[in-house]
Amino acid sequence: MKKKLLVIDDSEVVQRQIKIFCSLLGIDVICTDDLQVGLSLVESERFDAILLDIRLGDYHLKEEDLKKLSQFSQQIVLMSADFIENESLPFLLKPFTATDLEKLILK
Questions:
Q1: pLDDT value of position 61
Q2: Which of 8, 88, 100, 102 is 20 to 30 Å from 27 by CA-CA measure?
Q3: The domain spanning residue 31 has which CATH number?
Q4: Which residue segment(s) compose the domain that 46 sits in?
Q5: What is the tally of structural domains in the chain?
Q6: How far is CA 75 from CA 12, 43, 58, 89, in A?
């Protein structure tokens, strides 16, 4: 069964980059730039992993957002162009490579 990945990121460039990387790995990808749409998607579909930008426009991710998403997926990977420390979740620093992404989502 193919893995399925949800990407919540407001950058079309990042969304496109992840889609290209994942297509080479045989992973289905659904992208949205809106956290509320992402929350609706995880309630109706099963995802093996969620890649989540910590800053969506002017909105900064909150702990309660992570709690909601973690109810539906065991693997959440945070992404940002700024380094953050979060010992509980994997983190991708933008820009990242296909190898960086592969290491995290094919565990």
A1: 87
A2: 88
A3: 3.40.50.2300
A4: 4-105
A5: 1
A6: 22, 15, 25, 8
Q: Mean of the per-residue pLDDT values for the chain?
A: 90
Q: Report which residue type is found at 71.
A: Q
Do residues 90 and 78 lie in contact, with contact meaning Cβ atoms separated by under 8 Å?
yes
List of residues 6+ apart from 34 with CB closer than 8 A: 8, 56
Question: Which stretches in the chain have pLDDT values below 70?
Answer: 86-87, 107
User: pLDDT for 74-85, tens place per residue?
Assistant: 799 999 888 777
Q: What is the 3-class SS of 36-89, one letter each residue?
A: HHHHHHHHHCCCCEEEEECEECCEECCHHHHHHHHCCCCCEEEEECCCCCCCCC
